[in-house]
């Protein structure tokens, strides 16, 4: 027999079940793991040389990416390399993009010049501009001096500047200098002697500069340049003109 007590008990159970079903489920907190990727911004990019002679083929210099502790990353695993404007005469660009545990993008440039006696003013100006992209008092300026000196030597050797048209060379250097702003000319005046002296020193006493060349990322480039027999004459042709501009 269904009694009042049994009905009350059944009603109580039904009410409890209803309340439980309607109660909101507690939210489960989720936490996103912190980004552990390492930014490439503070890493150093080096290539064997920064000047190449045009031959109609794409230039793809080997890229090395190192940390402040000189630990080298692995291409294809830690970063991906792409090249652009790397076939024709002019300035080519290398893009280094981080992969997996590394993020961010780095860029490096190099120059492609004509292997001709005729002076390519654009290529020459690109090389000479390396003398004015830093101030002698800046942090790391000594490394920039070594890099600029090496690139100048590589440029003059590859195009055999000693046999170039002297009038065209003089015109190109003069045009470059007069096209600079007063501020850029002042920067050149502050950097020029150090760069020219360093280039002389590299030719005469290469081993004394090997550590500095390695720090600047141009050691391999300089080694190849110093093998050129007419390097001294090529450098003399440009140095003479640079000493005169002021």
- H-E order: HEEEEEEEEHHHHHHH
* Count of the domains: 2
Percent strand = 15-25%
Calculate Rg over CA atoms.
32 Å
Estimated helix fraction: 40-55%
The largest β sheet comes out as: 4 strands, mixed
Helix run count = 8
What is the total tally of β strands?
A: 8
Biggest sheet: strand arrangement: 3-8-6-5
> Can you tell me the residue ranges where pLDDT is under 50 for at least 5 consecutive residues?
28-33
Q: Structural class of the secondary structure composition?
A: alpha/beta
Mean pLDDT: 84
Protein name: Lipoprotein
Signal peptide: 1-21
Keywords: Signal
Commentary on this structure:
- There is one protein chain.
- The protein is an alpha/beta fold and 246 residues long.
- The protein has two domains: 34-113, Sandwich (Immunoglobulin-like), CATH 2.60.40; 116-246, no CATH class.
- It contains eight helices and eight strands; from the N terminus they run αββββββββααααααα.
- The strands form three sheets. Strands 3-8-6-5 form a four-stranded mixed β-sheet. Strands 1-7 form a two-stranded parallel ribbon.
- α3 (141-158) runs parallel beside α7 (219-225) and α3 (141-158) packs across α8 (231-244).
- The longest helix has 23 residues, at 182-204.
- The model is unreliable at 28-33 (pLDDT under 50).
